[in-house]
Design goal:
The structure holds 2 protein chains of 2 kinds. Chain A is mainly alpha-helical. Chain A is 76% helix and 0% strand. Chain A is built from 14 helices and no strands. In chain A, α2 (19-44) packs across α14. Chain B is built from 12 helices and 2 strands. The radius of gyration of chain B is 24 Å and the shape is globular. The relative contact order of chain B is 0.13. Chains A and B meet through α1, α2, α5, α6 and α7 of A and α1, α3, α4, α5 and α6 of B.
Chain lengths: 288, 301
């Protein structure tokens, strides 16, 4: 009815446990989410006496950049950063390329219709089975291929993890793209790769970017295979930060600084892609 | 629509179409199907790599039988089930409440929604390390803040009676927002006329929640519950950085157990058997949830 009626009913709903309770709970939630980040950032700039003091220093009065210098000189942050970037962007390129090709072919190509169902059920299966169940065989296969401690093996694994989601999302985008243009170029004698490359894919470019970002973030955050398949030279950031807890004493300053390096690129991507992120994640969760 | 997409097919189109799905099939073969098949085969063998000259020996179902005699396996299974039940029920309860509270479309709600996304997209390893730092017994800020309300220092990580709940807490911190966001988008898709009608009839907000919102969103809630329940059996990163399965085996979960057996102790055959059993159990759980959802959808019409 009126535009205002939406707001009326909805806030009626959102105050279902009373406005004061609602405000208190939301406030606790808000602080609960943000406080760990406040703690990480302040610790990253604290002096050693301050992050090792009891009671903890809540509001640091002196700050230092030493922790960031340390992670560069002592803890190889640049190597980890380079590996993380290589793994995540490699996986993104392959996933988006292979995934969009497959999705295009399933929607506009001349494949038996049954195949789409096969891909759909594969998506469900992959969502169900935990990555750990193939970890042991993959570990031995990669070892016998002499690909241990090589970013290529992690690019391969991350590509395989993200392909189902990307194919699923891209199928949606290709289905929405207008078919008339495609049909016209078919009559003009364009081959299928030409139509894919020059006609239809440019129309779904925004979808391609959104799924690419999602893949990048998931591969950036991946830890299980990173810890299994790397030994030394190809350790990404996630493995380096875990190493602070398992190998070293609790040196929280550098650890918090490393945490900032792991977390901030993802936050920036999220900030740029807010809406696509929610819809991507929820489509991935609810479809199929 | 689909029929019209197929009228001008040529032979070259047909060949290219197959060529276009070839890379995906290749990646899948190397990274999923071959390892899975290999794992299935290995699960029937006794194969330990701790002895350099060890050869795989066929032992039939012995690995599967041994599993149920293995106390640590039973412990990690029960830990994992307990962890899944606790974290999923808390996440669902709080997540649905938060979604309700954010369901009005104002600026504050949208801002909060953005912040809600933060815990769920950062690396689980990072949130594990962050909480490990904050929950330290001596230097941690959590114990310090709790001391203001008179709670004595708690050994969140080191006490075997508490460590599992600590993991549950961190998991909730990361995934309550996930539940809330998905349920929220489902609440927002409820037609206004439904809510207005209930309101005009004089239903209290709580009534509207239980009689209108909950039934309509229930299929989504069931699916979210399924995803979280299955994901709870994938937990690895947080346990790995926070407790390494300890103290004792108090926080050992199935994935960390498989990792330890297969990668650390190199007991390939046994850990493969655990993994295969794991897939079977997960498929069963998913089947139950999907049945549940279909039942609910049918009831709603």
């Amino acid at each position: 009815m009126r535009a205002g009626s939406r707001r009326g009913s909805q806030s009626y709903l959102s105050n279902f446990i009373g406005l004061p309770t609602r405000i208190v709970i939301l406030l606790i939630l808000f602080i609960g989410i943000l406080f760990p980040f406040y703690w990480m950032i302040t610790n990253a700039f604290k002096l050693e006496q301050d992050y090792y003091s009891s009671p903890p220093v809540m509001f640091p009065t002196r700050i230092t950049g030493q922790n960031f210098v340390d992670i560069v000189t002592k803890y190889e942050v640049f190597k980890g950063l380079a590996n993380s970037i290589m793994i995540a962007s490699g996986a993104t390129v392959f996933t988006v390329l292979f995934g969009s090709m497959a999705a295009y072919s399933l929607i506009n190509g001349a494949l038996p219709r049954r195949l789409k169902g096969v891909f759909g059920s594969w998506f469900l299966v992959q969502k169900m089975y935990p990555a750990i169940v193939v970890a042991v065989p993959v570990f031995y296969i990669i070892r016998s291929l002499r690909l241990m401690d090589n970013v290529l093996s992690l690019i391969l694994m991350n590509t395989s993890f993200n392909l189902p989601l990307v194919i699923l999302l891209m199928i949606g985008f290709y289905q929405e793209a207008p078919f008339e243009v495609e049909e016209q170029s078919m009559l003009d004698g364009c081959t299928l790769p030409q139509r894919y490359l020059y006609v239809t894919t440019p129309m779904v470019k925004s979808g391609l970017i959104a799924t690419g970002m999602l893949t990048f973030v998931y591969s950036w955050n991946e830890f299980l295979y990173a810890v299994i398949l790397t030994v030394n030279k190809s350790k990404p950031l996630t493995v380096l930060i875990a190493g602070f807890i398992t190998d070293k004493a609790l040196i929280w300053g550098p650890m918090a600084a490393m945490g900032c390096v792991v977390v901030f690129p993802v936050l920036i991507i999220m900030w740029l892609m807010q809406r696509d992120f929610i819809s991507g994640i929820s489509a991935g969760a609810l479809k199929g | 629509m689909l029929i019209s997409r197929r009228i001008h097919q040529t032979t070259s189109d047909r060949i290219w179409s197959w060529a276009f799905i070839l890379p995906v099939v290749a990646v899948l073969m190397i990274a999923a199907f071959i390892p899975l098949g290999y794992g299935l085969v290995l699960s029937f063998y006794k194969y330990k790599l701790t002895i350099a000259t060890s050869r795989p020996a066929f032992i039939g179902l012995q690995n599967y039988i041994n599993m149920f005699k293995d106390e640590i396996f039973i412990k990690s299974l029960s830990n994992n089930i307990l962890f899944a039940l606790m974290s999923v029920s808390i996440e669902l309860f709080v997540g649905v409440m938060v979604a309700m509270m954010l369901s009005d479309d104002n600026r504050m709600g949208r801002l909060l929604t953005t912040f809600l996304m933060v815990p769920m997209i950062i690396a689980p390893v990072a949130s594990g390390t962050l909480w490990r730092m904050m929950m330290d017994r001596t230097y941690g800020v959590v114990n310090y803040l709790l001391s203001f309300i008179g709670i004595p220092p708690v050994s969140w990580i080191g006490d075997y009676r508490i460590a599992l709940y600590t993991i549950v807490f961190v998991d909730c911190w990361q995934f309550i927002p996930f539940v809330a966001l998905l349920v929220l988008s489902s609440i927002k898709s409820i037609p206004n006329s439904f809510l207005d009608a209930a309101r005009v009839d004089g239903a209290s907000p709580w009534k509207v929640f239980t009689k209108v919102v909950l039934p309509i969103t229930s299929p989504v809630i069931i699916i979210v519950a399924m995803i979280r329940f299955i994901d709870a059996f994938k937990i690895f990163d947080v346990v790995f950085v926070m407790t390494q399965g300890g103290p004792g085996n108090a926080t050992e979960m199935l994935p960390t157990y498989i990792y330890r057996q297969g990668i650390k102790f190199l007991d390939v055959g046994y850990s493969s058997a655990t993994a295969i059993l794991f897939i079977l159990a997960m498929s069963l759980i998913a089947w139950v949830f999907i049945r549940l959802r279909n039942l609910q959808l049918r009831r709603l019409g």
